[in-house]
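Dear support,

I submitted the protein below through the web form. The confirmation email said the job was done, but the results page showed an empty box. After a refresh the structure appeared. I'm attaching both so you can tell me whether what I see now is the final result or a partial one.
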Amino acid sequence: MNYEMHIPKSIRSFLIEVGDLSYFAGRFFREVFSRPFELRELMHQCYKMGNKSLTLVGVTGFILGLVMTLQTRPTLMEFGAESWMPSMVSISIVREIGPVIISLICAGRISSGIGAELGSMRVTEQIDAMEVSGTNPFKYLVVTRILAATLMIPLLIIYGDAIALIGSALVENLKGDVSFQLFFNNVFDALEYSDINPAIIKSFFFGFAIGLVGCYKGYYCERGTVGVGEASNSAVVYTSMLLFIIDFIAVFVTDIFYN
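What the results page shows now:
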């Protein structure tokens, strides 16, 4: 007697989505090492994702450092442990809070932008026209954007972390009369390679996920202008979920190798 396993439609759709995304990622790795190399488009995308995100990331990092220090300082004062503030804030921001928050901010800006841009090109048949003219649209549109996101997100995270520490130092200078030199001396004394290396490594995976999901949702956009909005929205949702999964795996692996 044959028994058929009934899989709910939602689970089936999710598994199909994961399979399609995995195939899309595999196609990227096949195309990235093949000619032609679209260096000019890559540089253009790096400029759009990196330089044009500096203000947003800088403001986010600065407020992050301010708020974290203001919220934590009263608790440390109760125990007479204000001197621990620079080391606690620096380790928290560099290890976890900075990379995750800044990646989520970039997901909202970059991933949704890629999804809307490629989605618009798909529904207006610009991608089809590129295929007819003999151009490889995947190479020109997808590979360059994923590479640019993978390269720029780590730099934006480092920049955001630095601005966050400056914001924290400003609060300590105003509230606790701690000089900037003393604050950053304590910061660099507290930070170790085991704090910095995992954060930088996982930031490359964050960037890859942001570029991959945005390109996937936009490249396979359907249903006209309505589909463009859905592609942009779902790109942010899927990217955010994937960032948390990657972060969990990174923390788990870091705990094994460094502890």
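Response: this is the final, complete result; the empty box was a page-load delay. The two ends are 52 Å apart (CA to CA).
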